[in-house]
Amino acid sequence: MAGILPSLLAADFANLYDEIMKVQEAGYLHFDIMDGRYVPNISFGPDILRALRPHSRQVFDTHLMIVEPERYIELFAEAGADVITFHYEATTHPHRVVHQVKEAGCKVGIALNPSTPLNVLEYLLEDLDQVLVMTVNPGFGGQRFIPAMVNKISELRRIIEDRGLATQIQIDGGVNLDNLAELHTLGVDLFVLGSAVFGADNPGEVVRKAREILKKDK
Ligand code: DX5
Ligand code: ZN
C-alpha cells in the first residue's frame, strides 16, 4: 500500500515529541533539512533525528535540501535516517552520492525540482530506491501544488514500468486530503503531507483519513 509521510516542518517545534506521537500510525516521518543556501529557508539538522530516534519506530525519511549533500550523508545516517534523499541539482556528482548513501546503510532517493527534467535520471534510475518529484519549489511548507507536475509524475511512472523497476515515486508539496485520491491514480507510492497534517486540529485523524483514501483508490 502507498504511504503517508507527515512532514515535521509543519509541526510545533516546541512539542516535537508530542507531535510525532500523534502520527505514529503513518509509519513514516519526513524530515526537511534546509541549509539557507540551497533553499532560502533554514530548518533543523541531524540532532533532531538523533533526539527523536529512540522514541519512534517510524521510517525516518530524510529530505536534504542542502548544497554539497556529500558532506553530511554519514552524519544523517548515524543520527538515525533510514532513507536519505538529496537533490540532483545540489551536487556535482549525483552518481557518487547515491552510492555513498547506500554505503552508509540507508535507502537512497534523488529529488528533482519542478523545472528539472526527468531525463537527468537516465543513468541513475536503476540505482535508486525512490525518486522525489517536487510538486512545489522547495524551501517552504504550505505552498500550492504545481499542476504541470501531474504529467511529470505520469511520465516517471511509465519509465519505471517500462524498465521493470521497483523504484518508488514520492511527491512533496501541496498535497492534501482533497487532491490525494487523484494523485494516487498517477501511480505515486509515497505522499509527503506537511501543513495538511500538522496544520490540522487533529493530525492523527488526517493521517487516518489519508490512509483510508489510499486503501480505497488503487
Ligand atoms: C518543501 C518541503 C516539504 C514541505 C511540504 O520544501 O520539502 O516537505 O514540508 O509542506 P506542505 O505539505 O505544507 O506543502
Ligand atoms: Zn520534503
What does this protein structure show overall?
The protein has 218 residues and is α/β, with parallel strands linked by helices. The protein has one domain: TIM Barrel (Alpha-Beta Barrel), CATH 3.20.20. Helices cover 31% and strands 20% of the residues. The chain contains 8 helices and 8 strands. It has helices at residues 16-22, 46-52, 73-79, 94-103, 149-162, 180-184, 195-198, 203-216, and strands at 3-6, 28-34, 59-65, 83-87, 107-112, 130-134, 168-172, 190-193. Strands 1-8-7-6-5-4-3-2 form an 8-stranded parallel beta sheet. β4 (83-87), α4 (94-103) and β5 (107-112) form a beta-alpha-beta unit. α2 runs parallel beside α3. The longest helix has 14 residues, at 149-162. The protein is globular and about 45 Å long. The N and C termini lie close together (9 Å). The model has no long low-confidence stretch (mean pLDDT 98). Bound molecules: D-xylitol-5-phosphate and zinc ion (ZN). D-xylitol-5-phosphate binds at residues 7, 9-10, 30, 32, 63, 136, 138-139, 141-143, 172-175, 192-196.
